[in-house]
């Protein structure tokens, strides 16, 4: 998938921020509890010296009332501080629409819009709230630039700007009221001939890319899963999943034979030019391929092959219902910049969309260190998947050094 996970941008900062704010919230709560108890202990155990007889209580009652009022004010102040910190952590109300240089279209999109008939009886909502990534607040200048356009006119040719925002955690992007650039699709072939045939290079948008031709793309190693992956006529891409080059290369028919209950729909994470989905389509299995256009027009190329591209980063929750896929395939797109907590969130989302008995195919995942491989192995074992196939192999890279790769086919258990 065009190295989605290798360019996280500011996305990793969210975990640091959340962790810091959570620690601060815990310290504030602890301080509040200790202070409250000390005031209460003082109020109910303090006996001021007085010449008056014990049966005169007005002074003591007044003192206790003052202490209780002080305690209540302290609790109220702490609750307000905690609520404000929660908003900062979650990103709520963090975008100040009154600040200068905010695009008018962004203001209009983010304003809350009341429902014309009042409260909805089924959902209970009273207004429509725009969907936008909370990390967008950290990229307000770029976001305002993205939302500066002519309403009902042509959208600026700025897809690379939108993708930059996505890679910085600003996902989902706000919707726009302009018409996208139209690129004529020339020479499209009918399915299934489209799976292994090229179309005119004029069918792709090359703006914002270093290469301006498919030949240029095939001359480069765009990422670990895409070296010459646009050569679907004469290159090795034509042999992938049907002819193995190493013990880590599993054959697609062998993997499908391990499944139970049949294979109908699948999800490919980091699918490169869509070859995995093409092989599955030949076997009457529908596969959705998640990709971004990092250094290449991956989504357009996948669509030209008659396949289903999904323009999505791995920081986004998968827009699928629970337990819907028979198979999830992932290669090095699973690498999320070495952040173990991000990989854990990702693995739980993969588990969510995979049905019980479904297969998770980890395909030639690069283990840069033994610690990384052990951490991934330990994470996978926490899910209780059945190991149908598990291979750790070595390869010699271009520099003559040995690299370790993990390939596995795992079956999701039935949990009750």
Automatic annotation (TrEMBL):
GO annotation (BP), single: methylation
GO terms, molecular function: methyltransferase activity
Transmembrane feature ranges: 24-44
Chief place where the protein resides: membrane
Membrane topology: Single-pass membrane protein; Single-pass type II membrane protein
Cited InterPro entries: Prob_Methyltransferase, Put_SAM_MeTrfase, SAM-dependent_MTases_sf
Keywords: Glycoprotein, Membrane, Methyltransferase, Signal-anchor, Transferase, Transmembrane, Transmembrane helix
Localisation per UniProt entry: Endomembrane system; Membrane
One CC-aspect GO term: endomembrane system
Residue ranges the record marks as coiled coil: none
Organism domain of life: Eukaryota
Family (UniProt): Belongs to the methyltransferase superfamily.
Name of the protein in its database record: S-adenosyl-L-methionine-dependent methyltransferase
């Amino acid at each position: 998938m065009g190295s989605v996970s290798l360019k996280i941008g500011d996305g990793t900062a969210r975990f640091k921020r959340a962790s810091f704010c959570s620690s601060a919230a815990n310290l504030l709560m602890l301080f509040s509890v200790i202070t409250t108890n000390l005031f209460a202990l003082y109020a109910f155990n303090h006996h001021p010296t007085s010449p008056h007889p014990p049966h005169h209580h007005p002074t003591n009652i007044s003192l206790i009332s003052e202490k209780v009022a002080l305690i209540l004010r302290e609790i109220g102040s702490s609750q307000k501080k905690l609520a404000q910190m929660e908003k900062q952590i979650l990103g709520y109300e963090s975008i100040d629409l009154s600040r200068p240089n905010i695009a008018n279209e962004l203001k209009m999109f983010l304003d809350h819009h009341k429902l014309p008939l009042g409260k909805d009886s089924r959902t209970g909502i009273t207004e429509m709230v725009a969907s936008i990534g909370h990390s967008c607040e950290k990229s307000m200048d770029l976001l305002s630039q993205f939302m500066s356009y002519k309403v009902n006119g042509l959208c600026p040719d700025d897809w690379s700007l939108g993708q930059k925002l996505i890679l910085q955690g600003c996902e989902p992007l706000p919707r726009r009221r302009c018409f996208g650039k139209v690129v004529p699709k020339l020479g499209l072939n009918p399915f299934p001939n489209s799976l292994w045939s090229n179309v005119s290079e004029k069918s792709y948008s090359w703006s914002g890319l270093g290469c301006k031709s498919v030949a240029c793309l095939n001359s480069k190693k765009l990422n670990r899963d895409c070296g010459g992956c646009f050569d679907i006529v004469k290159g090795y891409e034509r042999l992938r999943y049907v002819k193995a080059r190493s013990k880590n290369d599993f054959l697609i028919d062998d993997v499908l034979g391990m499944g139970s209950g049949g294979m109908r729909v699948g999800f490919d994470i980091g699918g490169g030019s869509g070859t995995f989905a093409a092989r599955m389509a030949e076997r009457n299995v529908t596969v959705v391929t998640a990709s971004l256009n990092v250094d290449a027009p991956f989504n357009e190329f996948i669509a030209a092959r008659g396949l289903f591209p999904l323009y999505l980063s791995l920081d986004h929750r998968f827009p699928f219902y629970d337990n819907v896929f028979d198979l999830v395939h992932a290669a090095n797109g699973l690498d999320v910049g070495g952040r173990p907590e991000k990989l854990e969130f990702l693995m739980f989302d993969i588990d969510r969309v995979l049905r019980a008995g479904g297969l998770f195919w980890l395909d030639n995942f690069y283990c840069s260190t033994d610690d990384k491989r052990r951490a991934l192995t330990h994470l996978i074992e926490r899910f209780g998947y059945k190991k149908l196939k598990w291979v750790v192999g070595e390869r010699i890279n271009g520099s003559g050094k040995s690299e370790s790769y993990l390939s596995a086919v795992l079956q999701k258990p039935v949990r009750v």
